[in-house]
Design a protein that fits this description.
Belongs to the metallo-dependent hydrolases superfamily. HutI family. By secondary structure, the protein is α/β, with parallel strands linked by helices. It folds into 2 domains: 3-65 and 348-387, Urease, subunit C, domain 1; 66-342, TIM Barrel. The protein is 34% helix and 22% strand. Strands 6, 7, 8, 9, 10, 11, 12, 13 and 14 form a 9-stranded parallel sheet that branches. Strands 1, 2, 3, 4, 5, 15, 16 and 17 form an 8-stranded mixed sheet that branches. The longest helix has 17 residues, at 109-125. The structure holds zinc ion (ZN).
Length: 389
């Protein structure tokens, strides 16, 4: 197997507690050896073993590739006018999703896949090497199943979100839609997905409906994750903990009981500040969660309605500037945190045996991701050991 040595790394984030005293496992003047698609060695550059090829990082920083654990990338059309109107003073409600549902249903498979690939390439160039994505803009048996089939060609982290909103076709009979989502639609979708998700929110699905949907998904072998407490207080976070979901996503409006429940669980709180940015909403309080001992992940929520950014560095900058996270905490949350939210140990860290997914920054330190917001600092990306951007 071919080996590649990346050396002269000024600052290396490993997320491996074997290095240094902080969760980031920082190594200065470091080197990494890639063998095939995996990391084979990490340590000080003067001790690095020889390799077939050498890449000189010229004193710059190297970080694990970002793990974007929450996106909605199988869609068609855009919502420029909705965003424009909202920035002129209207507030966001879940209803805007219907616009994308109509466009997605009307699109061909080829159009949906080309749009997905376009956004994945965009994310890769910004350092994202693992991503999760969801259905949720089809809301019919066939349209949901095809979204998942298309997504599964590009990632292992595929989520069935037939319960994004009640399909407009069932506006007068939400119970019948829940029956579809937990019945025929689930049967068609489960073979193509790893996860089941539900938008548990006023205007979408209440606690009882969400429990029924997640429980039915679990019975079909899918693992639960939940859109919880984004727009207001509600039962989503408690339900996520009760059902041992890998992640409760958004977590913007939390009671003390919600924070306690997360802190005493294995459920990760995935914060999605692109959504609050793009809807001018209240930020999630990352500091409160971290101080309570909750595991926090940061992700883009990339979707054409409420958070049309594929940039994890942008989310890191928001989290540091407005959500009380330190640059180190935000770095960890966007890599190791995302991996934990997907229950993965082979990504989000640079340690022997993990996938060789890493990004070279045009900066001496990962802190620059927040210090230099909006600047395209990711200058090279390796994914599965191959130079990908
Ligand atoms: Zn979402």
């Amino acid at each position: 197997m071919t080996t590649t040595l990346i050396t002269n790394i000024g600052s290396l984030v490993t997320n491996d507690p074997a290095h240094g005293d902080t969760p980031l496992g920082l190594v200065e003047n470091a080197a990494v050896v890639i063998e095939g698609d995996r990391i084979a060695w990490v340590g000080p550059q003067e001790k690095a073993p020889a390799a077939d090829a050498v890449h000189d990082a010229q004193g710059r920083a190297v970080i694990p590739g970002f793990v974007d654990s929450h996106s909605h990338l199988v869609f068609a059309g855009d919502r420029t006018q909705e965003f424009n109107a909202r920035m002129s003073g209207r507030s966001y409600t879940a209803g805007g999703i219907r616009t994308t549902v109509a466009a997605t249903r009307a699109a061909t498979d080829e159009e949906l896949e080309a749009n997905l690939v376009h956004h994945l390439d965009e994310a890769l160039r910004q350092g994202t090497t693992t991503f999760e994505t969801k259905s949720g803009y089809g809301l019919t048996v066939e349209d949901e199943a095809r979204a998942l089939r298309i997504a599964a060609r590009h990632t292992d982290e595929v989520t069935y979100l037939g319960a994004h909103i009640v399909s407009p076709d069932y506006a007068d009979d939400p119970a019948a839609y829940v029956a579809l989502v937990t019945g025929e639609m689930l049967d068609a979708c489960a073979p193509h997905a790893r996860w089941v998700d539900v938008f548990c929110e006023k205007g979408a699905f209440d606690g009882d409906q969400a429990r029924a949907i997640l429980t039915a998904g679990k019975a079909k072998g899918l693992l639960p994750r939940v859109h919880a407490n984004q727009l207001g207080y509600g039962p989503g976070v408690q339900l996520a903990v009760e059902l041992e979901a890998a992640s409760a996503d958004h977590c913007t409006h939390l009671t003390d009981e919600d924070v306690d429940a997360l802190a005493n669980s294995s459920t990760v709180a995935t914060l999605l500040p692109g959504a609050e940015f793009s809807t001018r909403a209240q930020w999630p309080d990352a500091r409160r969660l971290l101080d309570a001992g909750v595991t926090v992940a940061l992700s883009t929520d990339c979707n054409p309605g409420s958070s049309f950014t594929s940039s994890v560095p942008f989310c890191i900058a928001l989290a540091v500037r407005d959500m009380g996270m330190t640059p180190d905490e935000a770095m960890w949350a966007a890599t190791a945190g995302g991996a934990q939210a997907l229950r993965r140990e082979d990504v989000g860290r640079l340690a022997p045996g993990a996938y060789a997914d890493l990004a070279l920054l045009d900066a001496p330190s990962h802190v620059h991701l927040a210090y230099r917001p909006g600047v395209p600092l990711v200058s090279a990306v390796w994914r599965r050991g191959v130079r990908a951007a």
